[in-house]
Amino acid sequence: MAVYLGFDSSTQSLTATAIDVTAETRRVLFEHILQYDDAFPAYGTTNGVWVGGDRRVVTSSPIMWAEALDAMLETIAREHPDIVRTVHAVAVAAQQHGSVYVYGTATPTFEALDPRRPLAGQLEGIFAREEAPVWMDSSTTSQCRALTDELGGEEAVIRLTGSRAHERFTGPQIRKFAETHPERYQRTDRIHLVSSYLTTLLAGRHAPIDSCDGAGMNLMDIRGRAWAPAALRVTAPALEKRLPPIVVPWTVVGPLAPYWRHRHGFPSARVIVGTGDNPSSLIGVGIVEEGQVAISLGTSDTVFGLMRDAAVDLSGTAHTFGSPTGKYMSLVCFRNGSLVREHVRDDHGLDWPGFSDALRNTPPGNDGALMLPWLDPEITPPVSSPGLRRRGFDRSDLAKNVRAVIEGQMMAMALHSRWTETRVERIHATGGAARNAEILQVVADVFGATVHRIGPSSSAALGAALRAFHADARAAGKPVPWSEIVSGFANPTDSVIHPNPRHHERYRELMRVYEDFERSER
Ligand code: XUL
Questions:
Q1: Distance CA 171, CA 186 (A)
Q2: N- to C-terminal Cα distance for the chain?
Q3: Which of 269, 295, 337, 397 is 20 to 30 Å from 277 by CA-CA measure?
Q4: C-alpha torsion angle, residues 74, 286, 317, 368 (rounded to 10)
Q5: pLDDT tens, 289-345?
Q6: pLDDT of 466-494, one tens digit each?
Q7: Distance 339 CA to ligand 1 centre (A)
């Protein structure tokens, strides 16, 4: 067996996926999931995060993420001892943009983790911020404005970094920390992304940042794939020395740290540089050529696709990130994903089958009833005063609410991903809600495209395992083309959902109304 292990440290859970790539038996060996709220109640998170009073400050615990990693490796080692012994390489995918701030004492701590003691306790005292800001945070509007002005306006920021300044991006978050806690910023030795932080724990030394996840910081020159000195200068004092280097996404960081080998019996596998969950999902859904689009329906909903060049969206809606294949990817992110679907479901006392029934029993177009699904501050379009907006119905109408939330989300996705001007004919769908055929039918009808369900595995964790395979083969001097890397794994399942032309026509009309509604409520 040739086994590769991928992790996805997402907002609400940690997933581990193991694959075997021996020629005749390419298959997923196992997938394990740990939900943070259930597995680590002592941290008091809700859906994996702590939300501040005004819902704009959203953070989580770097120690909890470490504890989850430790618990996951212990579970895997206990349940699959034979598989674990044959792991060749591991890689991490993680929620993007979040940042972890550590003091200089972290370096010797990472390098000398004691296998006789659990990981989390050994990390006490190393964090300059016990609470790491995550992608759901929207508290840095003033920093975004200041950075944009100082860099010469929105277009200049987009051209330089691939995105306008976004509240959740790491640069504005770092600036806020340096402004509000100058003394702690001064004492901060290193600032990691979630992906490079967890990779650091696996390798037992500071890991670099890959050029895919690095693009989500408003700090990287998107074309040069290097820190942009002008962006660093306006963000915070002496920032360059606090950031890990940027590297290509197939970089080998080193072997698994002795901690994992001695505590859980892992071999000296290669640790590959980590990346963001979205770049990783691009590989996990099998998009290694341009012209295909995927949607991921998770805590955030995202629409993404591969691009050959670093095209940028000057309207400021979409982001340009690096892709793990060495090219680029476009991404549009919606904050109100699974949590607003669950809110509507719970508000009407439904379970998922009941939710599906409501969708099945209502007409496409919902008799004109529309919902803007902004339960929390929204990223796309930017909305800072949250609250569901309904038109043509009220909260008591169960079936209309169910259809309206899904149609609102999907019309917003179609509307805001128009900038790439690619005619979307085929969509790869992944994430928890992609299990729901009724939701995918709305996707197919709104976009007028066939929807191929990818699964059942987590695409981000699978993508991480596939990246580990790719980088390991390359490091061994036997590179494998990307099309071969994903072959047999990321193939769409046989569930293909076709659009209904009549319903698509209905949505084309409705989308104009939705667009006006959206504009009037922002
Ligand atoms: C992407 C984004 C989210 C997080 C969630 O820009 O903010 O998709 O990566 O995990």
A1: 16
A2: 54
A3: 269
A4: -100
A5: 887 899 999 999 999 999 988 999 999 999 999 999 999 999 999 999 999 999 999
A6: 999 999 999 999 999 999 999 988 766 66
A7: 14
- Element holding 107 (H helix, E strand): helix 106-111
Asked if the model's pLDDT at residue 449 lies above 70, the reply is: yes
Residue indicated by tokens 């329906």: 297
The structure tokens listed for 143 are 């920093």
Distance 209 CA to ligand 1 centre (A): 16
Is 474 in a helix, a strand, or coil?
helix
Rounded to 5 degrees, what angle do the CA atoms 217, 223, 226 make?
55
Around 282, how many Cα atoms within 13 Å sit in the side-chain half-sphere?
A: 29
Provide the sign of the torsion angle of the four alpha carbons 436, 437, 442, 447, taken in this order. positive
Residues at CB less than 6 angstroms from ligand 1: 10-11, 95-97, 135, 168, 216, 276-278, 300, 302, 331, 333
User: What does the longest C-alpha to C-alpha distance in the chain come to?
Assistant: 64
Query: In 3-state terms, what secondary structure has residue 13?
Result: strand
Burial 90-102 (b: 16+ CB within 10 A, else e): bbbbbbbbbbbbb
Rounded CA gap, 321 and 330, in Å?
Answer: 6
User: How big is the CA angle at 318 (ends 409 and 173), to the nearest 5 degrees?
Assistant: 100
Tell me the mean pLDDT in the region 222-247: 98
Percentage above 70 pLDDT, the chain? 98
Mean pLDDT of the chain: 95
Per-residue pLDDT, 1:
82
Q: What is the pTM (predicted TM-score) of this model? A: 0.96
Does residue 64 contact residue 43 with C-beta atoms inside 8 Å?
yes
User: What is the amino acid identity at position 101?
Assistant: Y
Question: What is the position in ligand 1's atom list of the atom closest to the CA of 379?
Answer: 7
Compute CA distances 456 → 166, 314, 425, 443, whole Å. 32, 36, 22, 18
Tell me 46's DSSP state. B
